Every structure is written in structure tokens, then in C-alpha cells.
Known about the structure:
Blueprint: H1 12-17, E1 18-19, E2 28-36, E3 43-52, H2 56-70, H3 80-87, H4 94-108, H5 112-125, H6 130-138, H7 147-157, E4 162-163, E5 169-170, H8 173-181, E6 193-194, E7 199-200, E8 220-228, E9 237-245, E10 250-253, E11 256-263, E12 266-269, E13 274-282, E14 288-295, E15 303-306, E16 309-311, E17 319-326, E18 336-344, E19 347-356, E20 361-371, E21 374-384, E22 394-404, E23 415-421, E24 427-435, E25 440-448
Antiparallel strand pairs: 1-2, 2-3, 4-5, 6-7, 8-9, 8-17, 10-11, 11-12, 12-15, 13-14, 14-17, 15-16, 18-19, 18-25, 19-20, 20-21, 21-22, 22-23, 23-24, 24-25
Helix pairs in contact: 4-5, 5-6, 7-8
Amino acid sequence: MTHALIQRLAPSALCLALACGGAAADPEFQLESALVDSVTAQSLGASREKGSIATFFAAQKAMVYDILRSSGIDLARLPPDVRGRLEKFHTTNLAAFKAFSTGLDLKDQGKFAEAKAYFEKAIQLDPNFKLAEEQKVAMPNVNLVNLLQIRAAVTDAAKTAVSSGQNLVAIDLAHAMAAMLAGQTVVIAPQPTNAATNTSTPFSYSTNPPGSGDNLASHLAIGTAFSYTPTGSPASISIATTNEYTSSQYARSGTMLESITGSGDFAAQHGAASDCCSGTAALSDGTPAYWGTWRSVPGASAAVALSGSSLSAPVLGSDFNYLYAAATQGMPSTGTAVFTPVGGFLTNVSGNISINFVTRSVNVNNLGFDLSGLMFSQLNGSTTYSASNVSGFFAGNYSSGTCTGCAAFSPAASSFTGNFVGSGASGIVFSSIMQNGAGTVAGVHLFGR
Length: 449
């Protein structure tokens, strides 16, 4: 892992990167770590700590600092909040720590359901173990079944990461699961060199950049849906997502979206594509939302950059659909709301999305829609929206549902995302990727109170 520490740094970074030893009854312990650049396979450093069990947690902190230094991260230049999380002892209960570490190991194997049980055990042993609680909440109730999926989950997590320091990346595994199960193909790679300044951009994979309370007037929540056919593949992949973008990350011509840039490994340009299928609707607070399609043919195509690849027709599918509205500037902290379909690219939409602004819970209730000739119905799912993003990004997998016309359909392998829009969260830009047994289909839609 180059300049990326997965999940919270202490103590989880320790057991994600290290081999942890010692049992509760052992009088001594020994910890060893090795940090390797995954691109060059070069060793960046190694460290060893040992001593009595009484000094275990102090040694664990020392090893975390060694990992940071080996990664080229200057501890003195870390933001105060990051430094504070590093220095905090999340638990001093060895049994709870062992249960937590086992949970992390199972999570790395893709055994999320089993991992969740160990995180719950850690909480029982130490009710104040907040990091274990965070991991428990983030765990999907499904398991990955092979190493390829596990690698995809970890790499795709970088796309939804929220940068929390110069080169630190915190990965939301639940969001990674949603994207990975939707069939997305991802690659971790450094950002390209900026030719204008001849300096390299730091690692930054966020496709959901955190909002700023000081400058939100021009932020947009944008949902996109498109398909492409990977080289050598007979089947196309459909992708849909929602994200929040600052004014420097998008361009418009009137109400037509022209480009999305500056957001991790994803960018899109209108290019020579024609415009089609535009629409607009107003939310209950008067906030307007707009949608449209860039329609591409060879020689007159939109351009999409995805995971280091440049896509244009005929590799890029004919329709790049977008939907956007002003991002919510501040999420409510009390009350509940129910959101129903307003408009967009799903047809015959039924059901609703209910939100609890106290617990930040998101529930998809009996959602139904038609997409690419397939009829999906009775779709249910639950997740929580992020407090680190002003427009409350959320992602999850469906827990139940049916499909008419699918070769095979598994709700748990289909996913959804969303961002809130309008004053006081009056609407949701919602995306959905559905596994149909032969590939994926995807779409975006607007929901309002």
C-alpha cells in the first residue's frame, strides 16, 4: 500500500498491516511489521516491538508511528484531528483488542458476517470501544467469496475515500462493497503529474469530496449512469454513482452539464456528443434539478476517464446520463422524512426512501422501477448516511427484491447510492446498479419530500 493506511490508524492499522501475536495469558508479546510498496514491490521499512503484556498498547502506538514514518509521512505536519486519533488509546482491554483484531482479519478475507460478530464481541468486552462500534456498523451482512473480489473491494474503496491528511486515506469498506458487488473494475494508481506546475498531485481517490461549510453555495450533487465494454470482454459494464462536487469540479452551459473533473479517478467531458433527453423538476423548497444525456457515436463521442482508462464510443456506451441539483448545505439533526420519486432515468418508479435524521438511517422501502427492459420490484435495503460529507452521501446493498426478465437476480449483489440536495435536505439524487444475471444495468433518479 503506497501512502495509504486502510481504515482508522490505531489500532486497526496495526492489525491490517502487521502480524499480531500474544494471548491473554502470555506474559510477553512480540509484534513485527513490514511495509511494502504495492506498485514497485520495494520494502519501505520494517519494525519490531516486544515486551510484557502490560506494555502492549504503548508498543502498538510506537509501531503505528514507525509505519507512518516508513511511508514518508511527517507526523509533525498531520492535522490536529488526525494526530489526536493516532494518539488515542481506543481500548486497553486485551481481550477486546484480540476480538477486534480477529474481526479485522476476517474482514480482510471478505468474511464480513463473521467479522461483524467479532466486532460485537469486542464491544461486549469493552462498551467504550468506539472503533469496534464503527466497524460493526460498516460491515455488510454478506461475504465475499474469492480473493479477486477481496482485492476489488479494497481497491474500489479508494474511490470513495475521504482524504484526512496529506497522504492519509480512510476507506469506507461498506461503500466499497456496494461498488464492487455492482461489478465495477478499479485500479489504484497515482494521480498523473500536473504539467502546468510540474509537480505530482498527492494520492487522492475521493469521488465524494467532503463539503466545506465556508463555501457551499455552488456545490452540486451529481448522479451519473453509463456503460462501457472492457477490452476483450463480450459484455458491457453499467455504472451509476452519486457524488458532491465543488464549483471547480464541474462546468455547465446553461442547464446542460458539460464536464466533471477533479474527483479521484473519474472524470467526464461532453466532448462532441449530442444532447438528448433533458428534463427538469422543482423540489418542495423550490430547488431546481436538471437531467440530460450525452449521446455518443464513434467520431462524435463524450469522453470518460475511469480508473486510468480513457473511454469513448464505441467502447463507451451510447448514453451518458446525468442528474444534478444544488447539494444540501447542512443536514437536519432532528426528525424524519419520506422521499418519493420525482423524475429522472428510471421509469414506472414506485416505493419510497425513508430517512431518520437523528440516527442517520436510510431505508429503501418496496422500491420498484423498470430499467433496460427489466422490471425490478419489492426492493428493500438499509444503510446510514455519512456525517463527514455535508450532503450526506450514502451507499448500500439491497436486502430483498425481485426482477422480471433477469437471467438471475440477487438483491445483495445490487447496490444503491445517494446524496441529499436542496435546502434542509429536500431531495435525494439516487443511483442504482442492478445485477441481472448477465451483467449490470444502472440508472439515476430524483426523489423529493
